[in-house]
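Propose amino acids for all 637 sites.
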């Protein structure tokens, strides 16, 4: 009976709208459920009843469509809206919001994995990271990089996370002491600092008893039991030769003894640290400093003699040799003055020179008149820049107020004579070796610069330019001997200066990065964007204690809701892959935050009203069909 079909059709509508209303009610009920994903209902019509089939067109008639009457409606599917909900901040470090695709992985009581967007985590008394009692899963197995940092093996299997202990790291709740092994000194040193007054070379700073250091930083080192010791790192600018500047470093401590406790580092002209340097220097053959006016002779046989000065300023020895190198007599002196009676007869009298150092002075005697063949240049008067190594002679002619200075150099094959490009009457001069005194190019490079000597006379100074190669350690391994009552091993510390630079600033600034620490217990935790859990301990150290994994699916809408805000896999959800947050198509994690439900109340109320009207309409069809049936029954008798 056709009217009865209308009744069953309307009933199917009532049932379908009831299901839609059930879904809407569930959405509204979960409007405050963390990470909840709203659902919607899709309908489909039921197979229609065919009253007459469709016919094809003929030569005299057209085609006709089939006559069909629908038999009602059914629920085709319920779809889950997987869009990300709003994020709300939280004061709990265990609250984590996902800002994109992916699901937290938890282990159920049966040992199976389930999945959730609920990031409201907590830590139980055993240290398990849980969500509503289910243990959160991720990675705990790790490797260490060259700097000792933990890298979790995220390609391995996931497992429940315990932030207090695990089979890989052991006890993570109490951090055991770690002895210091390295200290990196960083920052910059002022290139404007003055060199040390007592320095006599790149690696000879002299007396360090009362050094006024240019830079200082404090480092704290730890022994294997966690005892800490304060060590001061002091720096003093030592010397400058050419484009190389050296600095003296010294370690000082009231608590421990250190060996070696000092050394030198070097910087180039750009302020970068170097591990070696080749320095050109000039060695003057005659450095005794005597002038013709400082030596007189009495009864001495005419000829050539050499005066050699040896010893120190407190006790110089003055020895006279003949031209064959035979000693003819000597005397001692504290300032270079004195008399020497010669074994061959006669006497030399020496007046204290203005500047005296150990070395030799060649003199000639003719009728007791002494001539020094030395223009009195000393080592400190000669500077060299990129000049070729070898022997040089500086010849000074003329008289006071009108001296002319020339330079001669021989490479063993050719002899070159150079005129000064900048000369003064006091003996100072500069020689450019690229052009000789005739203006001809020599093919040589470099310059020789002479400063005015203390006493200048006509004569010749011979000197040799040679190179000295210095090696510098950018790192130095020191042994720190702990106090005997500490009962611990000595500390071997690698001191690293490789990142230091020099700058043209008025002051220096140093800092350090020294490893090692004493024992500690957790003071706070945090979770990074990639799910790494960090613990900050009471000793100031921060270490990772695990990494939370995310699961991604080929078809996340195919997941099956299993209660407790959990999802389980289904035949429709596709492959599951465990990834690090922010990779593999997943979103990142936001700590101290929660993802809210994505239920839109306005849409739910609108859908509810539509379902209500549809329900009312279907019930109206039933009442109408009922009246029609009643009318039909009333026609009988």
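Proposal:
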């Amino acid at each position: 009976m056709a009217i009865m079909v209308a009744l069953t059709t309307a009933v199917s509508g009532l049932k379908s709208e009831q299901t839609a209303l059930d879904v809407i009610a569930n959405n509204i009920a979960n409007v405050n459920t963390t990470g909840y994903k709203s659902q919607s209902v899709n309908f489909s019509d039921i197979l229609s009843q065919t009253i007459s089939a469709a016919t094809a067109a003929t030569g005299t008639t057209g085609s006709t469509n089939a006559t069909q009457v629908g038999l009602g409606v059914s629920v085709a599917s319920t779809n889950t809206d997987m869009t990300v909900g709003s994020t709300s901040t939280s004061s709990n470090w265990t609250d984590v919001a996902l800002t994109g695709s992916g699901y937290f992985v938890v282990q159920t009581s049966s040992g199976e994995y389930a999945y959730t967007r609920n990031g409201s985590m907590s830590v139980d008394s055993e240290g398990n990271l849980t969500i509503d009692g289910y243990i959160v899963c991720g990675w705990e197995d790790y490797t260490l990089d060259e700097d000792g940092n933990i890298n979790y093996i995220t390609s391995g299997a996931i497992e429940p996370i315990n932030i207090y202990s695990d089979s890989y790291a052991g006890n993570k709740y109490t951090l055991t002491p770690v002895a210091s092994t390295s200290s990196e000194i960083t920052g910059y040193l002022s290139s404007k600092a003055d060199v040390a007054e007592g320095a006599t070379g790149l690696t000879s700073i002299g007396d360090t008893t009362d050094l006024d250091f240019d830079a200082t930083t404090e480092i704290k080192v730890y022994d294997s039991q966690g005892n800490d010791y304060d060590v001061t790192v002091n720096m003093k600018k030592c010397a400058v030769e050419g484009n190389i500047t050296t600095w003296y470093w010294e370690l000082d401590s009231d608590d421990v003894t250190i060996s070696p406790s000092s050394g030198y580092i070097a910087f180039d002209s750009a302020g970068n640290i170097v591990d070696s340097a080749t320095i050109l220097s000039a060695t003057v053959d005659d450095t005794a400093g005597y002038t013709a006016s400082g030596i007189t002779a009495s009864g001495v046989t005419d000829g050539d003699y050499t005066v050699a000065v040896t010893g120190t300023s407190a006790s110089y020895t003055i020895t006279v040799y003949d031209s064959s190198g035979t000693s003819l007599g000597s005397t001692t002196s504290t300032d270079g003055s004195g008399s020497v009676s010669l074994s061959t007869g006669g006497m030399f009298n020496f007046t204290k020179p203005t500047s005296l150092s150990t070395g030799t002075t060649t003199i000639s005697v003719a009728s007791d008149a002494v001539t020094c063949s030395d223009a009195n240049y000393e080592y400190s008067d000669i500077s060299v820049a990129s000049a070729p190594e070898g022997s040089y002679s500086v010849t000074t002619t003329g008289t006071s107020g009108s001296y002319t200075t020339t330079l001669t150099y021989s490479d063993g094959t050719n002899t070159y004579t150079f005129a000064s490009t900048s000369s003064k009457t006091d003996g100072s001069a500069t020689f450019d070796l690229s052009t000789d005194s005739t203006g001809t190019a020599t093919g040589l490079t470099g310059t020789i610069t002479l400063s005015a000597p203390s006493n200048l006379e006509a004569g010749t100074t011979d000197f040799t330019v040679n190179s000295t190669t210095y090696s510098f350690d950018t790192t130095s391994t020191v042994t720190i001997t702990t106090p005997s009552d500490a009962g611990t091993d000595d500390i071997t510390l690698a001191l690293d200066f490789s990142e230091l630079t020099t700058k043209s600033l008025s002051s220096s600034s140093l800092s350090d990065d020294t490893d090692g620490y004493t024992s500690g217990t957790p003071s706070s935790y945090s979770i990074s964007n990639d799910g790494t859990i960090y613990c900050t301990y009471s000793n100031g150290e921060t270490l990772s204690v695990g990494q939370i994994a995310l699961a991604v699916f080929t078809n996340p809408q195919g997941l099956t809701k299993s209660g407790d805000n959990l999802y389980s896999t289904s035949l429709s959800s596709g492959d599951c892959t465990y990834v690090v947050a922010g990779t593999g198509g997943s979103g990142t994690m936001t700590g101290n935050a929660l993802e809210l439900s994505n239920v839109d109340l306005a849409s739910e109320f609108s859908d509810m009203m539509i379902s209500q009207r549809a329900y009312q309409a279907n019930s109206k069809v039933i009442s109408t069909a009922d009246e029609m049936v009643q009318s039909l029954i009333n026609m009988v008798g």
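The chain has a mean pLDDT of 89. Residues 601-634 form the longest helix (34 residues).
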